[in-house]
Here is the input.
Amino acid sequence: MIARYSTDDVRAWIDTLDRGEPEQPRLGWGESYDRLHDTLLYARRIRRYCAIPAILIAAGVIILFHGHVWDFDDIRNLFGTELCMVMLLHFALTKVFPVLAREDRVQTLLRYYGATDVPHEHEALQ
Here is the structure.
């Protein structure tokens, strides 16, 4: 299990990697790299595990409270609720895992330092 790190920790690790170069000795930037790498992969895994249950819960709520006949309004409400649930999940996870709030910057830095197992999310889905 990964410990929960604060926004200040993530910011400090990013600053360390911004000031360093991959050609420099790993002693200066290695710990920041390792922490960001592990934290980002863990947070992404949690996000993947939470996405499907959140969508199913939202669908279940709509199905539970819909009328006897399905019409366009019910389907529109279903997609609206799904969208709200995904946005709420994203908001909650960025508060719990600050590395997700700066995910693009972190994955770019990790790739610059040589990480090959940190693809952009849309690349990972292909």
Notes: The chain has six helices and no strands. The helical segments are 7-19, 26-65, 72-96, 98-101, 103-112, 121-124.
